[in-house]
């Protein structure tokens, strides 16, 4: 049975707490991602998403110089590298999560995105379930 460590992206671009929203947005554009973990060293503090920038930044008329910690999502669901891919797919579907930070010993070691699950879940039914449950939801999380 595949583990998250087998499919996760290990080389994750991060922002530090002193970075601002503009710098986070530039990284999102440069790396073509919709979310960036906020870390002190490799300790995960939160995640900033393109939606966070729009809802908590632009819509609240905050300047681009606003620190990422002021608009990031702090309450994150995480997983450990030894969690099975199937268990992660179920958890992500139940909790409506598109990106799952992978943490080991309080340190960010990778991230698994919804697309990763579509490729690596053991059955097409599980992949389809995870994708449909998350994609059809009106809720957007990290």
UniProtKB/TrEMBL annotation:
It comes from the Bacteria. Transmembrane segments: none annotated. The keyword Lyase does not apply. PROSITE patterns: CBS. Residues 8-66, 72-131 form the CBS domain. Pfam families: CBS. The keyword Amino-acid biosynthesis does not apply. InterPro entries: CBS_dom, CBS_dom_sf, Diverse_CBS-Domain. Keywords: CBS domain. Gene3D superfamilies: CBS-domain. This is CBS domain containing protein. The lineage of its organism: Bacteria, Bacillati, Bacillota, Bacilli, Bacillales.
